[in-house]
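HUMAN: Mind sharing a backbone?

ASSISTANT:
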Amino acid sequence: MNDQAPRRRPARPAKPHRRPKKDPVRILAFEVLRAVDERDAYANLVLPPMLRKARDKAAAGKDGTAFDARDAALATELVYGTLRRQGTYDAIIAACVDRPLREVDPPVLDVLGLGAHQLLGTRIPSHAAVSATVELARVVLGDGRAKFVNAVLRKIAADDLDGWLEKVAPPYDADAEDHLAVVHSHPRWVVSALWDALGGGRAGIEDLLEADNERPEVTLVARPGRATVDELMAEVGEDSGLPGRWSPYAVRLAEGGEPGALDSVRDGRAGVQDEGSQLVAVALANVPLDGPDQRWLDGCAGPGGKAALLAALAAERGAALLASEKQPHRARLVGRALAGNPGPYQVIAADGTRPPWREGVFDRVLVDVPCTGLGALRRRPEARWRRRPEDLEGFAPLQRGLLREALRSVRVGGVVGYATCSPHLAETRAVVDDVLKGRGGPAPGAELIDARPLMPGVPALGDGPDVQLWPHLHGTDAMYLALLRRTD
C-alpha cells in the first residue's frame, strides 16, 4: 500500500501580460467616429486634419510608426464605410449581442462597427479583421471589453453580408421601406422621403440608395478669369484627371487625388465643388435678362463655393457680386473663397430674412437655403443618422422667408434661383409653390422659368420647369433648382 500523497503537477507559469499593439490607422478611424458621435462633428471636416497630423508625426519619426498614402486610404475607407453602413451593421450587431444596442456603450459600438465593416465591407481577411479590431479594443477600451468585442466579431464573421441581410432584413414584399432601410443603411423615413421625391418603382430607389453609399468623386472647378479647365487638367495630370460630365468648368480627380496639393486650389484659382453645385450657379448666370445685368446677390453664401463661381462669372460681364452670409465665421470663409476674384465683390454678414439692402436692387439672386442635406449623404453620411423628420418643420419657415426676401430683392424682370441640397419635396417644390401662392406671407409676383435648357446636355431632369439632380443619374449631389422671374 502506497501511503505517499499524490504528486501535484507543477503549476504552469502565468502568461506574461502582452501590451496591445497600437495601430495608428485604426486608432485614427476610431477617434474620428468618436468625434462624430460626441461632438456632432462631420467626418469630412475632422478626418483631413487628422490625416495630415498623422503623416506629419510619422515623417518626424516621433513614435517610430509609418503612415503613408495607403494608410490614409484605409483610414478613410474605415471611417466612411462604417458611417455609411451604420444602420446595416447595427442590425447585424444587435443580432449578435444579448442586450439592446442602447445599453452598449457608444465607444464599444464604434469599435464593433469598425470591425463589422472590415469583415463585411472590405477584402481584409476575417482573421486579420478580428485580430486587428480586438487589438484596437484593448488599446481604447481595455482588456475586459475587448473580450466582448472578440466574441461579437467572431459571431459576425460566421457569415457574409448577403447571408446576414437575409437574417436581419424583413422581406421586401412584407415591408418594402423597412427592407430597403436595413439593406441600404438609411433610416426608414429617409427611404420614404427619397422614394416620394424620385417616384417610380423599386429599381430607381435602390439605385439611389446604393449611390448614397458609394464614395463620391472629388470634383474641382476652374474659376473663370483665373484658371481654365485645360490649365487645371494639365496641373492635375492626364492620369489623375477627367473632364467634368456636365459643367464646362469641372475637372474630376481620380480616386486618391488630393486637391489640397494643387497650387491652383491653394491660391484660389480653382476650388473643390460638386458638379451639381456648379450647374446651379451656371444656370442662374445664364438666364436671359432684359435690361441691366450689373448687380448679383448670393443671399446664403457660406461657405463660398457657389459665391466664388458666381463672382467669377459676374466679373466676365462687368457685374458685381454681393455675398451675404448670416454667420460671421461662415462669412469669413466666403471672403477667403472670393479673395483674388478679378472683378468687384463684397462680402457681408447679414440675415437674408431681414436684409439690409433696398428692395428691387439686384438683377440676379441666388438663395441656396439651409436644409436637411439629404442630397449630400454621399459626402456626409452621418447626416442620415443625425437628422429627424421634425427637422423639416424647423427649416420650413426659414426657407420660405429667404425665398420671399429674395424675390423682394430682385428687380422686376430679374431672376431668383432657389436651390437646396435636398430632394425632399417639403424643401423643394412645396416651398416654391407656397411662396408663389402667398402662403405664409405676401411675396412679389413671380413666374417659374424652365431651368432645363440652362443645363444643356444633362439628361433626366424631369418634367420641369424646376430641375432635380440625382447621384445615381448624374453623379452629383441631389441638388434642386427652381428659377423664378419677378413680374411685379
